């Protein structure tokens, strides 16, 4: 704590006082033509700015100290893998941990209130969508800003089919996934040539188009007033009470998460999965290696959207009411945040990301009106101090050992 | 025909408004390839600063012209300061991080600024004082466009010309172009890249503030959320024109504005945004890097 | 360094989750819990925040007098940002926290999504602002009440006024594509057509757009006798200002979404002559004056939209609990349906459907910068 440090922090505090002066201190009411001065707020800003600047520089230094200067991210050597990540790849630790976690997850609905079960189910829905988007963004490296549209496709599939034809939840589930994929193909074809942010903006546009159509086409989707009284899922012919049904959906989502994790994990190691990774790393080189780029991109979109469609069906069944307000651009952004904050490409990271991002605003309810402010700060701070996400993907390294050829040349 | 001309000017107004925000967007993008989600928020802060300053000065009875000048200058100044600070805190530590991390950081910053204004000020719409009195010479054409529309057209043109001049013909502009092309190379030839990026943010934010003041006087009311919607539209416009290109941003904005206006006028405003996005998709299919974007030859 | 950091980071997250998870477990019931749910953040926050303030003011008053049935009132806030899925979360949270009655939600969609959760826990819900007709008239939601009249009534009043007083032949119906706006406009359109008046334009504008001159030009071209606006005031003031600046003197009529002081303040001189339907004039009601004064003293500004309705709803709910002598669902709803209570919106009770009796609608016109009742 040197004098220079304090001086820097004082300077920062002064700067923040100056910066926030008009908006924090003066409150003008142009309707009543009154001016209020809140000088006390300036004091909070000063103290806050001082502390913030101090902590900020301290943590930034620590972050930089831990890393070799200007080391490119790609050449992370094995020892640079954080302890936690090595731990989870260590069977001796991972197995018991998994068992404990599994038990906790199974008894969770009986330990906590219905509210906890409910928000956990919401978080699990986002785990599935996050994992789905992870295929597109994290694995295949295609920035997708219209993902909520596919989620909407799933939700409206169930709501409308049920309303008009009485289709049951269980039948709607695969139909939702299939329709999600169909829409992904429709979106996929025109955008195959686009790269980077141009792709992002077209997916954004596509997401908005679907939402706006749902909003305006009253005869089809009942417009902004939405569809109410969507039935909750049944298990054969049992009729559940509200609490039982919440627990049931929780377990249903749990099963779906397991399925998603299994499938996406296997996919990542498959031929198509490695094609996706190659696509993410370098499109040109990927093409030069003889990979059909168009097909690879399209398959990533289709895979990702199928999960969104399925999650959408569950979402409609859980909420029992849907309207286009649930599928805005903001929703797509939240899902994208889950993927990036969790750690792109890493399955466990995305699961953690979804839990943190969806549960955090719920638990932040204690801070009531400050919660979205804190949420914004959390996003910035997380990204600054852990730009790779909570758990960044561990690159699989394939070691070729001579004499072990029976084991498969690349394992 | 008269109806067509009326719609033409409606579209021109919309387009110019998008352009005022899109210019800053595209500048920042051009230099660090960051979709600066918080750009709309900077615009909102500019408008709020102007509102607060005018409110205070009107309360103390200053002369009208002085109020306009001081409000505009302070709005520009404060927006630039916010832009600079935001860059220092939320983006600079992420220079070498994956691009998506910077995007999420930008989203976080945007959320923070929105809620900061919501909490410090109010959630209600506030009427924005009409700072500029109507020009008498525009009276005959008042069915086509009003005073604020006229000011927006001219300002958009002037800002675009100035920025183009700055980038094409000044030392700073040259450094900006070098940084945009290759940051490491620029560093090697002795350009202070961090300074250049800061300057870009300051200039981009200042244009956002000009937009904020003008658009707020045109619309007549502001609240904490105006930045988000305008920001998204401006971003779409910038990409449509070819992101990173200043004339592209203006052209993209105008195309977007006219599409919306003519579609509303001849078909229905229900689907104006749908039409705008469909046009966007079609244009990008045939010109994958926007109207005026550099062609997409990628060197390996 | 980094190793520890990541471990600690994870530990911190786990601890947080655990702490918050356990904190959800409720305490014993020694207060009356009033849930306040609605949009407290996001773009619709300005419609939800006034209801929190109303609830705060009322409970502060009542608690200062010793509470109800010897118990203090405790407020539990729930922010749903007007999103149905968050509304269900809020509802389950409030139910888990042992709430007795709920003031909210603000938007009709969110209210619909939340209602059957409250219903299964037998909790009466009263909204100050959800005007969707189905909420009460469909009979699906026996636990729902509201202190605002529903869209249907308002649209009928608008149409009869337009036909009998303004004697219009061609109208343009505009809305903001939203839950409230489009619902209201669709009804208005239906009733106009039933009354034999031609609706030449029925369109939604994009809320928050920076310029509406294209739609204004279109209105001008269609040469209508009246523009009927179905949604909130921010867009209305933009459109009416543009119309007047383009020298169009077509009458403009809105619903309770624009019957707000802010509309006049924002649109200024251009608001002059605008018609609006809205809850009957309460400005002379002493309770209304007192509530407004209390708000000004506490928050330094005039109350926002739906503040009187929310204030009245809080009063009605708490009064019903007091009259019922308990927080039992049947007793409270019975009291709501039988007892009259004096509120800022008048002396009200509730009918079988849950709609307030004693609130009425009037048509207003802006004259010299104030809404003045016509007829």
Explain how this protein is built.
The complex is a heterotrimer of chains A (411), B (300) and C (375). Chain A folds into 3 domains: 3-66, no CATH class; 78-111, no CATH class; 113-385, no CATH class. In chain A, 70% of the residues lie in helices and 2% in strands. Chain A has helices at 3-25, 39-65, 83-88, 91-111, 114-139, 147-165, 169-191, 196-216, 218-221, 242-269, 271-281, 283-288, 293-319, 329-342, 347-363, 371-385; strands at residues 26-29, 34-37. A two-stranded antiparallel ribbon of chain A has the order 1-2. In chain A, strand 1 and strand 2 (34-37) form a beta hairpin. The N and C termini of chain A lie far apart (51 Å). Chain B is globular and about 60 Å long. The N and C termini of chain B lie far apart (52 Å). Chain B is an all-alpha fold. A two-stranded antiparallel sheet of chain B has the order 1-2. With 375 residues, chain C is α/β, with parallel strands linked by helices. Chain C folds into 2 domains: 31-148 and 284-359, Rossmann fold; 152-255, Response regulator (Rossmann fold, 3-Layer(aba) Sandwich). Chain C contains 13 helices and 15 strands. The N and C termini of chain C lie far apart (78 Å). The relative contact order of chain C is 0.12. Mean pLDDT of chain C is 84; it is low at 1-28. The interface between A and B is large, with 70 and 72 residues.
Topology (elements, then pairings):
The complex is a heterotrimer of chains A (411), B (300) and C (375).
Chain A: H1 3-25, E1 26-29, E2 34-37, H2 39-65, H3 83-88, H4 91-111, H5 114-139, H6 147-165, H7 169-191, H8 196-216, H9 218-221, H10 242-269, H11 271-281, H12 283-288, H13 293-319, H14 329-342, H15 347-363, H16 371-385
Antiparallel strand pairs in A: 1-2
Chain B: H1 2-32, H2 39-59, H3 64-91, H4 99-120, E1 126-127, H5 147-169, H6 171-181, H7 183-188, H8 193-219, E2 221-222, H9 226-241, H10 246-266, H11 272-286
Antiparallel strand pairs in B: 1-2
Chain C: H1 2-23, E1 31-38, H2 45-64, E2 72-79, H3 84-96, E3 101-103, H4 108-120, E4 125-127, H5 134-137, E5 144-146, H6 151-166, E6 170-175, H7 179-194, E7 198-204, H8 213-222, E8 226-229, H9 233-245, E9 252-254, H10 261-267, E10 275-279, H11 286-299, H12 307-324, H13 329-338, E11 341-343, E12 346-350, E13 356-357, E14 361-367, E15 370-373
Parallel strand pairs in C: 1-2, 1-3, 3-4, 4-5, 6-7, 6-8, 8-9, 9-10
Antiparallel strand pairs in C: 10-14, 11-12, 12-13, 14-15
Helix pairs in contact in C: 2-12, 3-4, 6-7, 9-10, 12-13
